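Hi team,

As requested, here is the filled-out complex form for the flavin-adenine dinucleotide run. I kept the field names the same as last time so the parser does not choke. Let me know if anything looks off before we queue the next batch.

— J.
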Amino acid sequence: MARVTVVGGGVVGLTTALELAEAGHRVTVVRDQPVEDTVSRVAGGLWFPYHVEPRARAVAWGLVALRRFTALAHSPDGPAAGVRMAHGVMVHRTEPDLWWTEGLGAVLPAPREVLPTDALGGYAVRVPLVDTGAFLPWLENRCATTGVRLVRRTIDSLDDIGDDLEGDVVVIAAGLRSATLLPDPEVRPGRGQVVRLANPGLTEWVVDPENPAGLAYVLPHGEVVVCGGTDVEGEWSTEPDPEVERAILARCRDLVPALRDAPVVGRAVGLRPLAPSVRLARHTVDGRDIVTNYGHGGAGVTLSWGCAEEVVRLLA
Ligand SMILES: Cc1cc2nc3c(=O)[nH]c(=O)nc-3n(C[C@H](O)[C@H](O)[C@H](O)COP(=O)(O)OP(=O)(O)OC[C@H]3O[C@@H](n4cnc5c(N)ncnc54)[C@H](O)[C@@H]3O)c2cc1C
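And here is what came back:
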């Protein structure tokens, strides 16, 4: 069994740390943000492999996470973990490419009356929907009770991982900022802005990725509905833009008229860690044993458990 330091305490770092600890490794997580401030917290939490490569591996990792989230949703821990199975509709405006539905089970045409009038069609699926506001603290707590040491610190370079941190293997799971630790110049941000509305009673989700006015999605999580969104490559600003917010609200209220009078209760911006392919591999860097697990783009929640299980296999 190894002594492992995981750099990163978002959804990727925490699921990896928990899997490693459950496999018997001695694990320390180092991160410099509270979970509430991570990109993972901004995520809408839909199980959907959006803006991530390569597809074949994303499908395989996603299916592992699908199985794990489904089991969690059906367990007594489901509500506390913020995980439920939710029906929803994926709208399409061109011939749909259903590559990501492999292994999902029933994928049925959505009834015409729930679709925008100008849409070509849509399909109805039931997938995990994860409220990251509940899931991340639950995960962090599970890590702590499984023996993972949680340390708050910024790692400026791999040399910062000294004797006080577990040192046989370092897992780099620091999202977008992994790129400065290694370095990895191909990694770039995909800026995403969301608006949170008071939930008027919705339980089902809708995603309209090809909306001519821009990406639109409505994801209900209990009292709150997460409305999005945007995905602007290369943009680094994390300040919510009021103009962008107005446009998101217009698209989402058009898509789901029940949201017309729902008040805004919050807003957030996150930078998706985009990469030409998910960086999941074991390397030797400056004589150190390193496993990378970053670059999950718009699918960090969706692939989380699948990638975490693969990290455990890489260390076996
Ligand atoms: C608007 C939006 C909507 C999204 N919706 C979904 C969705 O519905 N479904 C889905 O699957 N995905 C979604 N995503 C994508 C998902 O949020 C990301 O893929 C995921 O959060 C990446 O997780 P991560 O753990 O790699 O990174 P992060 O959440 O960014 O966590 C990085 C961690 O590393 C730590 N860290 C970084 N650098 C250092 C350092 N040098 N020293 C110490 N600590 C460091 C930070 O403190 C933090 O703990 C969405 C993203 C956005 C922006």
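Two things worth flagging: The radius of gyration is 19 Å. The mean pLDDT is 96.

Thanks,
J.
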